[in-house]
Structures are given as C-alpha cells and as structure tokens.
Amino acid sequence: MKEKFRQAHIIILNWNGTEDTIECLKSIKNNRYENYTIILVDNGSEENLLIELKEWCRANFKRINFYNKNQAEQGGTSENEELLKREKSSDRLVFIENNENLGFAAGNNVALRYILSRTKNSLALLLNNDTVVERDFLGHLVKFINSNYRYVACTPQIRLYAKKDKLWNCGGCIKWYGNRKYYYSNCHIDEIPQNGFNDITFVTGCALMFKPQETGLLTERFFFGEEDFEFSLRLKRKNKKIACVYDSVIYHKVGSSISTVSNNLNKKVLYYTMRLMDLRTYSNRLLYILYIIIYLSYTFMINIKTPKKHFKIWRKVLKYLKEYDSVDRKLFDSITMES
C-alpha cells in the first residue's frame, strides 16, 4: 500500500509582485487544510518592495525561517526546522531570498531542492503569486493524490480573477503536431463539471501539484516560459498520469510577466524558438522537421498579408535553433529587447 502524503509544500515565486503576493498569502492562510508549509521565494525583487513584503510577513506569521539560496538547497538548519514545526500551518513560513532573478524554473527549483532535502516523500504545489484560492482548494488536491496513487500531478480548475464565472483553463492536452490545447478555456463555469476529475496531458505552472521525487524538477533550459510544456511533455513520454481536479478552485489574474517583451514579433520569435527547442529534445529528426514545417505553414497562413513579417520571424527562429539548445537569461534578454 502506498504511503499517503500528509503535508503539502506550497511554493510561491515573487519578483516585484508584493501586492499580488500578499493577497495570495492571505487566501492561503484562510484555507481549511491544516497541514501545509508555505515557501515564499523572492527572485531578486527591488529593495523597497522586498522590505514591504518582509514587513507584512513578519506581522502575519509567528515563525519565519529566512534562508538564502545555498542554505535553502541544503534543507535549512535542523534547529530552525524544529521551531517551524511547532507552529500551525497558517502561522509558519519559509522565506528564501535568491538575491537575483533566476527565472521561473530555477527560482522554483531552489524551493523544490529544499523540500527534497527535508523529506523523501514530498508533495509540492507551485502556485503563481497572482492567484487567489478557495478555502477547500488544497484539501481537494491532496485528497485526490492520496486516493489515486498512479497520478503524479494534478491541477485545480483555474478561473479568471477579473471574471470569476469564467474559466482560464482546466489543464489541457498536447496535440500530435506539438502544441497544447486548453480544456474549457473561456467557458462559463456552468459548462464544466464541479466535481470529479479529468485526465489531462498538459498542465500549466500556474497551479501545479506534483510528486517531485517521481517527476523530477523543472527544466532550467528556459529562463522564462516553456517549462510547463516541457514538464507535461516529459511526463507524457514517460506515461505518467496527470489530472484536473474539478472540486478544487482558484482564481488567476492571468499575469502579464511576458508583457515586458518589447514587441509582438519578439514574442513570436521567443515562443517558436523555445517550443521547437523543446520538441527537438523529445523527437527524432524526422518528427522534428515535421514540427518545423507545421509551425512554418501555420505562421505563414496567419501572416499571409504580411509575408515579410513571416520571413523575418523565421529567419531569427531558425538562426537561434541552429546556434542554441536553450534560452538562458542572456539570450532571453537579447530576443525580447531586440528592436
């Protein structure tokens, strides 16, 4: 019989998002599940915003273990961890300062290494800082994982924060042509089941509960974006099961982190470069070439009135694919800030 998971570790990554993060923390503290630890990871926020966030946390948690990146990845200290355990879930917090923007995957992986160094049988939940949760959301996710041991990951139904009767998504599927499709995107909440679950093959990193000892960490090949597609693709290739748990509900502000990209053309160059790098890793050469043809044909059709734009995008994409196998921060900045 499989050992059941008791404690859930909720990882929230913050980068200059103090207001959103505080609202997210408030909603988690009000949830009904009683065995969890929040791990707040700051990814090099501006000093004034970091100070504001720390002050709020000190006023609202009885025990906070502050760690830098190296301390966290080694599991903190035994003395601090014992003191943390004495407080109830809503009164305890692990606060990790990375002191620089490591990106989404690498930033979250610091917390995941902290968890794995503390326990061999861990349950982690990545939760965007621009989300607000229903009071029963966590209990439903933990119950599902404990009742369905073949599943290594799950997600709640994710509704829009601004329009709470509309869905952002309920997970999705990875299509044969190398793209993902959301389930119930932009549907009214009355159009979906409100209990039970559905098998999915794509899960967004916005709200992702998983067993890191079985799935592995997030890929750090991409500074920002694509890590959830790689995670889903990796699990699909290994025949690992993922589900959307309809009973569990959160609300997402559908963040604009990628809005810092200087123009729409650069967004497309970044998207296609990372997606095809990802697909190349999990495909043979023939299938990879087919993916390129499919994406080329699709973008030509949507840019048929502006062919120069189409060719400009793909000259850059093919150049990056030839020269690189990943998109680190330097390349990310180079692509996104190009005029």
UniProtKB/TrEMBL annotation:
Molecular function as annotated in GO: glycosyltransferase activity
Keyword Mitochondrion: no
Pfam families listed in its UniProt record: Glycos_transf_2
InterPro entries: Glyco_trans_2-like, Nucleotide-diphossugar_trans
Residue ranges of every copy of the Glycosyltransferase 2-like domain listed in the record: 10-73, 86-205
Keyword annotations of the record: Glycosyltransferase, Membrane, Transferase, Transmembrane, Transmembrane helix
Residues passing through the membrane, by range: 286-304
Family as reported in the entry's similarity comment: Belongs to the glycosyltransferase 2 family.
Protein name: Glycosyltransferase 2-like domain-containing protein
